[in-house]
Design goal:
Blueprint: H1 2-14, E1 36-39, E2 45-46, E3 55-60, H2 65-81, E4 86-91, H3 96-106, E5 112-114, H4 119-124, E6 131-135, E7 141-146, H5 154-164
Parallel strand pairs: 3-4, 4-5
Antiparallel strand pairs: 1-2, 1-5, 3-6, 6-7
Length: 168
């Protein structure tokens, strides 16, 4: 049991981001602010509309090959566990048409938004992408993961379940 807990702790630590928050960034343990999000794959929403259920936010850009590489695993994660938590994508592209072209390649079904004013990028601390943020049902940031991952791998699914307090 101790070995399994140590393994989980090391796996989460390996996925962690920078220790120092950028100005305006909400750090791990902080609560996300209410923020409008411009829709790419549907209507616009407020970030707070996702409260009440855990949330995975993936920050990406059309010019980021690792972002595209991880989209398939995020899609599979969303399809398999979408009743337990939400998954959304946020593009930091300046041009919606480039973000739309990326999404045509990615072939995802979860909602995507565009952050042309950089408000979400700054609040989430997306100084490197891809960035994936695990948020609890109350809007508190549990964990930030920088770099591409296989989001539907057994170890990652287990770590997400532990972070959200879910049986997966």
């Amino acid at each position: 049991m101790k070995k399994a807990l140590l393994s989980l702790a090391l796996s989460l630590a390996a996925m962690s981001g920078p220790a120092v928050a950028a100005p305006g960034e909400v750090p791990e343990g902080g609560t996300l602010q209410q923020m409008p999000m411009q829709g790419l794959t549907g209507g616009s929403k407020l970030l707070g509309d996702y409260r009440g259920k855990p949330l995975i936010i993936n920050v990406w850009a059309s010019y980021c090959p690792p972002c595209l590489a991880e989209m398939g695993s995020l899609e599979r994660l969303s399809k398999r566990y979408g009743k337990q938590f939400n998954v959304i994508g946020i593009s930091i592209d300046d041009y919606p048409e480039r973000a739309q072209a990326f999404l045509a390649q990615a072939k995802t079904s979860f909602p995507h938004f565009i952050d042309r004013k950089l408000a979400l990028e700054n609040m989430l601390g997306a100084n490197r992408i891809p960035l994936t943020v695990l948020v609890d049902a109350d809007g508190k940031i549990l964990h930030k993961v920088y770099g591409a991952k296989e989001w539907d791998s057994p170890d990652t699914v287990e770590a997400i379940g532990k972070a959200f307090g879910l049986r997966m």
